[in-house]
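pinging the channel bc i need a second pair of eyes. not urgent but kinda urgent?? the chain im working w is below, pasted from the shared doc
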Amino acid sequence: MKLITTDEYNHITMQVARPILDKYQRILLGAGRKIHPKYMEKLNELDIRYIFVEDAESWDVSLEEVADMPTWIDAVNEVKEVFESADIKGSLDIRRLSSTISKIEDEIKKRKILIPIPTTALPSTIRRYAHAVNVTMIALMIAKKKKLNGIQTHELAMGCVLHDIGKNFTNIHDDHALFGFDFLRKIREVSVVSAHIAYQHHERFDGQGVPRGLKGKEVHEYAQICGIANLYDNLISVEGTAPHDALEVIMTTSGTIFSQETVQIFVETIPTYYPGTRVELNNKREGIITKINSNLHRPIVRYLDTNEELSLVNETTLLISKVVPNS
């Protein structure tokens, strides 16, 4: 199995590996099906850009590192309903959000690595809520790496899942953090820390952010974590940036948008290449990444011509030269 863009889909060699859903989370196409050109037109209408497929190259790639689809979809639904209810009632169902966060935490606890599903695997109408879930998942992986305690982890997760709640009240990008903070600080069950994560997630370490232009240590550590998770998910989902390129972008932000410490721990949390990625090594041979083991940035690769599998951790002279587009 591998994750590809819809543009890379080959009707002859590929079939759907995970269900494709519509905006109501109903199954449009189930696993094992091929995508007829008419169905592909429908996916394009829904602006679905990523799909999970299987072909002869990726038959043995489990993608066990990728977030569990049912858990992810359930969390997206929960966040959607809480956000929509906030529009109507002017309040938040914090108990429900806490329950959702606990389920995400359980997913994180049982994994060494977790790769978020791009929000563009879903129709555009529900991506906002999937984005909130993805940012929370990434932040919780960082919290696990930092060994934050239960209270700290919950405050971070609550702030992350609500980081864009201000978009309920304004369409002006630079204002949504302020609107979100004004809303959250009136809710007794939301901690000051969680509210400030939403308030500060677009602040920059160099003082060039919004809404207040905070600088350096004035920006809360958890807001930096939320901000870097937010940027990464936007890169892979909205911009369609390949994961290895997205990680490069993140590294260029060290000391400007984010502190060096925040960038360093992010790099230690998120893998460079996802399993299923077709690559060319510096020996000019092509392979497919099958698994990530002890080193996030030195995966296991299987040669396409011989099916020989090797770990780049042990093959110190081999480097990934480039990613090869699916054909």
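so The longest strand covers residues 286-291. and The radius of gyration is 20 Å. — does that match what u expected or am i reading it wrong
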